[in-house]
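If you are new to this repository, start here. Below is one unmodified record pulled from the training split, so you can see the exact layout before writing a loader.
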Amino acid sequence: MRIANLAGRLVLLADGGAVDVERASGGAFGPDPQAVYERWDEFAAWAAGADLGSAEPYEVADLGAPVPAPRQIFAIGLNYRDHATESGFAVPEHPVVFTKFVSSLTGPTGDIRLPEGNVDWEVELVAVIGRRAYRVDEAQGWDYVAGLTIGQDISDRVTQFVAPPPQFSMGKSFPGFGPMGPAVVTLDEFPDRDDIELGCDLNGESMQKGRTSDMIFSVPALVARLSATLPLLPGDVIFTGTPAGVGQGRTPATFLSVGDELVTYVKGIGEMRHRFVAP
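And here is the target side for that same chain:
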């Protein structure tokens, strides 16, 4: 099942088209893409038996962030050993947690304005919470995940490191710095939900390529570690970290410029395309 936000309305993507959930369910579920996670079990049961034969063509440019207004955004730093190494840090013993502010979220295509600074890319798998999770055991962590989507943790390194200690959340929360999409894909769609390829290309050149099996803290481990401190709420998202290949870690360091196109992919979900424009 692939859940998306089409021009602000909740849809299911199927057979190359989109099915409007409010209309297909006879009003049982509303049009708000965010609200569906509060009724995730009920919605998943309905969708499993729904007639999706009424899929209509749509424009990819009309897709928005599939989770447009999460109450909590968790982002994990240094969650791949190779990225920790290229960043000059030791492999963490505990998850490095920060947030991206909701106003940074945007959809899977379009223009992103570049502020002054050194703006970098970070492809990430994003986990979407489907059930309230509090003090969850790692063995049950996947049970609380509605699905997975693609994210970019775009980061201005100047703002991030402008003062000690680093201000991760500020440097990663400019408008458009949190692209997500094109859809939330349920776990049953993946041959192995613990080993998924992800990567990104800049102007046609591969910058990052990794596998989620190389994460230091897996998705269920993150659900357990985060929920040990506070409840994870339906519709929350977890940016799970990035593999090696970020611009700051290259020699010489490379950052995004006006006119660049960034293509971000996660196998089994799809891709995002963004062009960077002047502020």
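Two things worth knowing about this chain: The radius of gyration is 18 Å. The chain has two domains: 2-58, 65-277.
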